[in-house]
Design a protein that fits this description.
Blueprint lengths: L3 H20 L15 E6 L8 E4 L4 E5 L17 E2 L8 E2 L4 E5 L4 E5 L9 E4 L5 E4 L9 E4 L10 E3 L11 E4 L5 E4 L6 E5 L12 E2 L1 H5 L12 E4 L5 E5 L2 E6 L4 E5 L7 E2 L7 E4 L2 E2 L12 E5 L2 E2 L2 H6 L9 E6 L8 E4 L8 E4 L5 E4 L2 E4 L6 E4 L4 E3 L10 E3 L11 E5 L5 E5 L19 E5 L13 E6 L10 E7 L9 E7 L2 E3 L2 E3 L2 E5 L1 E6 L4 E7 L10 E9 L2 E2 L3 E5 L1
Parallel strand pairs: 22-41
Antiparallel strand pairs: 1-35, 2-3, 2-39, 3-6, 4-5, 6-7, 8-9, 9-10, 10-11, 12-13, 13-14, 14-15, 16-17, 17-18, 18-19, 20-24, 21-23, 23-25, 25-26, 27-28, 28-31, 29-30, 31-32, 33-34, 34-35, 36-37, 37-43, 38-41, 38-44, 39-40, 42-43, 44-45, 44-46
C-alpha cells in the first residue's frame, strides 16, 4: 500500500515532469485535443414541473416555471397555499406549483406561486438582480412579473397587471445600456415597448410599430416569433426574424441597417425553431475599442412548409446549417456552415471558453404540439475560434432523455449546463408515445470539466476592485491558484451574463473577453492578474456577471461580480 509520503512524491514527480515538458515545448494534450465527450448526471428524476422557462440568478439559484393553464402539476405549494384564479382555463383553485427555485449548490427545490398564465413568455434580469418577466397567455398576456432574490427563502413572484400595452405572447426581451428592457414582438404584435414605462412623459407612445415584424411573418406558419435579439456594442439592437435581420435604433424608432438574407430555404424562428448567439465580444488586442468586432451565429431551423406538414403528420428533415455574420463589417455577408446532423428546437449555450454548445431538440418536424420527431440526443460543441470551418463541430456524448418541445438549458457558475423540460403535449402526459412529458433535471459537464485536466484549472481566490463592483473603463485584480501555468496557451478573463431561456433562445446571453494587462507569479501555484473592465454599458449592460478565468482552454468556476 502506498504511504502518504510516497503518494506525495509521485504527485511531485508528476508535477515536475509536466512542468519540464511544458517548459521545453513538448505537447501536453487538453480536452480540446482529446476524445473526452463530456458527461451526464441525472440530478432529479422529477422536479414536479416541466422546465419551459429557466433563468439563473446571481444567488446561484435557477428560477424555473411552466404554464399554468393545463391543470395540476406534480409539485404541491407549501403550507396549504393555493392559487385562486377565476380566469384559469383548467383549475380555478390550484394548490400545486407551476414555478420553483432550484438551488444549484445545495441541490434543493423550493416551490413558488405564480398567479397568471406564463405560457410562452419572456424575461430579463435588471441591474439589481431582479428578474422581470413579461407576457404570456390569457390573463397573463399583458402582465409584468418580478422576482427579486432573497437570502431567507421568503421571496416570491409579484405581479403588475395590465402593465404591457398589448398582448406579448412569444415575444423576446433584451436588457439595454440604460438598464431598461425592450420587449419585442409576439403573436400578431408588430411592435416593441419598454420596461419600465416612461411615466414622466405622457406624450410618448405606449409602443412603437416595427414593420419588419409584419414583413417577416409567413402566412399560416408565422416563423418570426421569439425573434433573436442581440444588443450590439454601438448601442443598436440586432433583430433576426425568419430569414432576415436588421439593426434597430430603438431610441429613434429607425432601422439603421438591413443585413443580407441568410442563404437557403430554412426559416429560423418559431415554429421553425432554430437558435442564435452573439459570439464573445473580445476586448483584446486591437479590438479594445468602444465598437469592437461582433459576430452573430444562427443555427438550425426548418424548411419552409415544415410546420403545416408536421400538423398533418409529415415530419421532414430539419435544417443542418448555421450562418455566421460579422455585423460590424462595412459589407457583412453570411458564411454558411454545416452541422453534423439536422437540428430544430436546439438550445445554443455560450461557454466560458468562447465555444457554443448545441443541445436538445429534434432532427425532424418543428416546434408545436406533437410536431417534432427523432430527438437529437448528442450535444455538439461549436469551436468558435477554429480557423478551419470544417473542424468546428465536435459531436459529444449523448443523453438518454429526449428533450423536445418546451425544453431548455442554462450555464451555471461551476461550468456545467443544467438541462430540463420537454413537454410536446397540451397537458402533462407521462404515458404518451413516443415522447412523454419530462419533469427530470440533468447536468451536462462539457469536456473542459474532465478531472484529468484539473492541474490546468485555475481557482479564483478573490476579486479585488477599487470600488463596489467592477468599474467601467477601470481595472481590477484577480488572485488565483493554478497547478501548472502553461504560458504559451495564456490566460483569459471572461464575463458572462446569465440568460433567460425558453423555446430554444437564451435572451440576454452575453460573453465579454476582457484584456489581461499583467500576470504576476506570487508563489509556486499562486498568481495575481490585472484586468481592464468593460468600456461601455453597450458592451456590458450594468448588472451581475459570472467572471471566469480560462487557462489553456480550461475555465475556473465562475465568481459573481456586479458591473456598475
Amino acid at each position: 500500500m502506498a504511504t502518504k509520503k510516497s503518494s506525495f512524491l509521485v504527485y511531485l514527480i508528476t508535477f515536475l515532469s509536466v512542468t519540464a515538458l511544458s517548459t521545453f515545448g513538448f505537447d501536453i494534450s487538453t480536452p480540446a485535443l482529446s476524445n473526452n465527450g463530456g458527461s451526464w448526471v441525472l440530478l432529479h428524476s422529477s422536479i414536479g414541473i416541466s422546465a419551459m422557462h429557466m433563468q439563473l440568478l446571481h444567488t446561484n439559484k435557477i428560477i424555473i416555471f411552466d404554464r399554468t393553464d393545463f391543470g395540476a402539476s406534480n409539485l404541491s405549494l407549501p403550507a396549504g397555499r393555493c392559487r385562486s384564479d377565476p380566469n384559469d382555463m383548467a383549475l380555478k383553485i390550484d394548490c400545486t406549483a407551476h414555478s420553483l427555485l432550484y438551488d444549484v449548490v445545495f441541490d434543493y427545490i423550493r416551490p413558488l406561486l405564480v398567479q397568471t398564465d406564463t405560457w410562452c413568455s419572456s424575461g430579463a434580469v435588471i441591474a439589481d438582480g431582479t428578474l422581470v418577466q413579461t407576457g404570456g397567455y390569457n390573463d397573463g398576456e399583458r402582465v409584468a412579473r418580478t422576482f427579486t432574490p432573497c437570502d431567507d427563502d421568503q421571496c416570491d413572484w409579484k405581479e403588475l397587471p395590465e402593465y404591457l400595452s398589448v398582448r406579448r405572447w412569444y415575444a423576446s426581451n433584451q436588457i439595454l445600456p440604460d438598464g431598461r428592457i425592450i420587449v419585442v414582438g409576439g403573436r400578431n404584435a408588430f411592435s416593441y415597448e419598454f420596461f419600465p414605462k416612461n411615466f414622466l412623459n405622457s406624450t410618448w407612445p405606449a409602443n412603437y410599430y416595427l414593420r419588419f415584424l409584419r414583413d417577416t411573418r409567413d402566412p399560416r406558419e408565422e416563423n418570426n416569433l421569439y425573434p433573436f435579439l442581440h444588443l450590439l456594442p454601438d448601442g443598436n439592437l440586432f433583430i433576426f426574424a425568419n430569414k432576415r435581420s436588421i439593426s434597430l435604433d430603438y431610441t429613434h424608432n429607425s432601422v439603421v441597417k438591413e443585413f443580407p438574407v441568410i442563404p437557403g430555404e430554412d426559416s429560423r424562428n418559431y415554429p421553425s425553431t432554430g437558435s442564435s448567439v452573439m459570439l464573445p465580444i473580445r476586448l483584446t488586442g486591437g479590438n479594445q475599442t468602444e465598437n469592437p468586432e461582433v459576430e452573430i451565429l444562427v443555427c438550425g431551423g426548418a424548411p419552409n412548409g415544415s410546420y403545416t406538414k408536421a400538423e398533418r403528420g409529415v415530419y421532414i428533415s430539419a435544417s443542418r446549417t448555421c450562418g455566421r455574420i460579422k455585423v460590424t463589417d462595412p459589407n457583412p455577408k453570411w458564411a454558411m456552415e454545416e452541422m453534423p446532423m439536422p437540428r430544430v428546437m436546439s438550445d445554443m449555450v455560450l461557454l466560458p471558453t468562447g465555444d457554443v454548445l448545441l443541445i436538445n431538440g429534434a432532427s425532424n418536424g418543428t416546434a408545436g404540439w406533437e410536431d417534432g420527431r427523432n430527438p437529437v440526443l448528442n450535444p455538439v460543441l461549436y469551436r468558435t475560434y477554429s480557423s478551419d470551418p470544417s473542424q468546428r463541430f465536435w459531436v459529444l456524448n449523448p443523453s438518454r432523455t429526449p428533450r423536445m418541445y418546451h425544453s431548455g438549458a442554462v450555464l451555471v457558475a461551476d461550468g456545467r449546463v443544467i438541462v430540463g423540460g420537454s413537454n410536446p403535449h397540451r397537458v402533462y402526459n407521462f404515458t404518451a408515445e413516443p415522447y412523454p412529458t419530462e419533469l427530470g433535471l440533468e447536468a451536462f459537464s462539457p469536456p473542459y470539466l474532465a478531472a484529468r485536466d484539473s492541474y490546468l484549472r485555475p481557482s479564483i481566490i478573490s476579486i479585488e476592485t477599487p470600488q463596489i463592483g467592477v468599474p467601467y473603463r477601470g481595472s481590477f485584480g484577480i488572485s488565483l491558484m493554478l497547478g501548472l501555468y502553461w504560458r504559451s496557451r495564456g490566460i483569459e478573463v471572461v464575463m458572462m451574463a446569465a440568460s433567460f431561456n425558453t423555446h430554444s433562445f437564451s435572451m440576454n446571453q452575453r460573453a465579454v473577453v476582457l484584456k489581461v494587462t499583467s500576470v504576476v507569479q506570487l508563489s509556486l501555484v499562486a498568481y495575481k492578474i490585472e484586468v481592464n473592465g468593460p468600456l461601455t454599458t453597450a458592451i456590458a449592460p450594468p448588472g451581475y456577471y459570472m467572471v471566469f478565468v480560462v487557462h489553456a482552454g480550461i475555465p475556473s468556476q465562475g465568481v459573481w461580480v456586479k458591473v456598475q
